[in-house]
Specification:
Shape: elongated
Distance between the termini: 57 Å
Structural class: mainly alpha
Oligomer: single chain
Number of domains: 2
Strand content: 5-15%
Order of helices and strands: EHHEEEHHHHH
Radius of gyration: 24 Å
């Protein structure tokens, strides 16, 4: 999940420009569920990623495992967005899903012609797809 924090500079600017009564009013509003002004909020960067050149270690693991190697930069941009929302379980979810998807009809058909590009796979969150069950017996036609 993306984490947000208060930008201390904006907060201190507010404190410096307002008297104690205005600051107290704002504090009471926030305690009662009011939100912070948008300019006070900044998005924290994920801290657990190790960068290897332009790509992170977790993304390179995904890239190595994914069967179609096109659009690496675009896939990495989507990966970073997903990382901020999902975090450490992203790689695990992808490798688990790709494991069963590699055996699916869509990915096998026509020598893998229908394997989605990595960017599409990530953007559409295809790692959240569920395996389809194949019928174990064929139904005989009744004539």
């Amino acid at each position: 999940m993306a984490k947000y924090k208060i930008d201390p500079q904006e907060f201190f600017n507010f404190v410096a420009k307002n008297d104690k009564e205005e600051i107290l009013k704002m504090a009471i509003l926030m305690v009662n569920g009011a939100t912070f002004p948008d300019k006070w909020i900044t998005k924290e960067k994920a801290k657990s990623k190790k960068s290897l050149g332009n790509y992170t270690e977790d993304f390179l693991s995904f890239w190595k495992f994914y069967p179609k190697k096109v659009g690496k930069g675009a896939a990495f941009a989507v990966w970073n967005d997903l990382w901020e929302d999902i975090g450490l379980i992203l790689l695990e979810q992808c490798t688990t899903a790709i494991g069963w998807q590699m055996d699916s009809d869509q990915w096998i058909k026509d020598d893998g012609q229908f394997i989605p590009n990595p960017e599409t796979y990530l953007r559409q969150r295809r790692f959240e797809d569920e395996p389809t069950s194949k019928p174990t017996t064929k139904i005989a036609k009744a004539y």
